[in-house]
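Observation: inputs received (chain + zinc ion).
Thought: call the complex predictor directly.
Action: predict_structure
Action Input:
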Amino acid sequence: MSVPEEYQYQHISLSGQKIPLPAGKVVCVGRNYLMHIKELKNEVPDVPLLFIKPSTSLIYLSKNIDIPQGQGECHNELELAVLIAKPLKGASQNEVADAIWGYGLALDLTLRDVQAQLKKQGHPWERAKGFDGSCPVSPFVEKSAIDNHDNLNFELKVNGQQRQYGNSGDMIFSINALLSEISQIFTLLPGDIVLTGTPQGVAALHQNDILDISFQHFFQLSTKVN
Ligand code: ZN
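Observation:
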């Protein structure tokens, strides 16, 4: 049986080439920016809060976004995404750099009302965060083009207004700390991506919203909510 076309996502480079790595799991980090923790009135974690989106959540960020209907608000969470090129298991912070292919952006689309209900019940978040198409992903910039991954800027405008602005230097747990910690629990394999948490500015998306997403000088791309 072949995989249906809508699930044939493949990572792509800035020049539009397919990156020869399989689309794997998506390991996500919650509560990694202080201002976002405050906006949702959550506690600052002692260790990274981790969850996983399945590979069926992956779609191209350049495609229009479908948000699930009848399940309350669906929020934008624009995050820096790290693409893994080599296996990482039980790695120290000094060992992770060699395993990184590059960096892009992803939306961790979140059904916020569903998530609030799940949190209240003490249930896992996958129904709110792991649905089909819940992880639109940009092209990836090769790491050789990036001097310092702890000083990367990214921005989301919705209908021309800035909604989110992030700098990776503001993370509570740095990229190296996250990859090391994650690799103690889930072995990271080539083609996996890590979403490093959202900065502040999460809010509901609506039909026909235009999203402009930019990553330093590397790219600016636009998409629309269907
Ligand atoms: Zn998130």
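Thought: report the result.
Final Answer: The chain has a mean pLDDT of 96. Residues 28, 77, 79, 108, 197-198 surround zinc ion (CB under 6 Å).
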